[in-house]
Amino acid sequence: MVQQYGWGNDAIGKRVKFAGDTSGNYLEVIGVMKDFNQQSLYNPIAPLLLFYQPVSNGVQLKLNAKDITPTIRSIESAWKKIFPDMAFQYTFLDQDFDSQYAADQKRGKIFTTFSILTIIITCLGLLGLVAFTTQQKQKEIGIRKVMGAGVAQIVRLITTNFIVLVGISCFIAFPVAYIFMNNWLKIFSYNTGLTVAPFLLSALAVLVITMLTVSFHAVMAAMANPVKSLRTE
Questions:
Q1: pLDDT in tens, 83-111
Q2: Which of 187, 192, 195 is nearest to 44 (CA)?
Q3: Partner of 58 at 20 to 30 A CA spacing, among 83, 101, 127, 166?
Q4: How far, in Å, CA of 193 to CA of 136, rounded?
């Protein structure tokens, strides 16, 4: 507000009058406080005027979070003694702040649910694809084992193709995710921006899930008796 009025460092002692007020009364500036968010981060910090009134319809209290219930009961008892005809109603400031982001929290839960479902479906698809691939390469795996290939070599042979496919999918998905997230963050007046860390962690998580899913069938195929797959040849 000081910047809007152009007061610079000489705000103390200035007088403010509300538009349309014909009473001739002014409010004198007695202090300036740092900017803070009055609303959610969707909104920029706006000019704010705080003034003292001897009569108010609300009371603000700072409570100890560990003893909220007995403290509220004590306050309610005192309130009913002083204002027996007025209903005792209260809200918590942190809940009021949370309500500003209720829609974002709901969207977050929806995205989390669908992400988990997607991962489960993907793992099932990977299991089926690995089972099919190992079945198709059963004789090749048997020949390689007869020729001296170890379990690690065969597992690497099977999993390499899947890791490459996962890498390609990440290169396709990450730009789309970046565009989506960047556009979403733009609606906030103040945001931290995007960093590389979430994408690296996502790639690592996808890689680990893929390896765990693929390795089971790959190890089973690598440890199978090659005689069974080559007996018809």
A1: 888 888 888 888 888 888 888 889 889 99
A2: 187
A3: 101
A4: 47
Rounded Cα gap, residues 215 and 221, in angstroms: 10
Which single residue is written with the structure tokens 């909220």? 68
CB of 127 within 8 A of CB of 217?
yes
The encoded tokens of residue 127 equal 């299991």
The amino acid at 85:
D
- Does residue 232 carry a pLDDT above 60? no
